[in-house]
Amino acid sequence: MFDLESLRDATRHVHGLMSPTPQYAWPCLSGRLHCEVWVKHENHAPTGAFKVRGGMLYVRALQERFPQVSGLVTATRGNHGQSLALAARRAGLEAIIVVPRGNSTEKNAAMRALGGEVIEYGADFDQARREAERLAGEHGFVLVPAFHPELIRGVATYALEFFEAVKALHSVYVPIGMGSGICGLIQTRDLLGLDTKIIGVVSDRADAFAQSFARGRIVTTETADTFADGIACRMPDAEAFAIVQRGASRVVRVSDDDIAQAIRILHEDTHNTAEGAGAAALAALVKEREAQRDRRVGVILTGANIDRQRYGELLAAPQPTRG
Question: What is the rounded CA–CA span in Å between residue 323 and residue 317?
Answer without folding.
Answer: 18
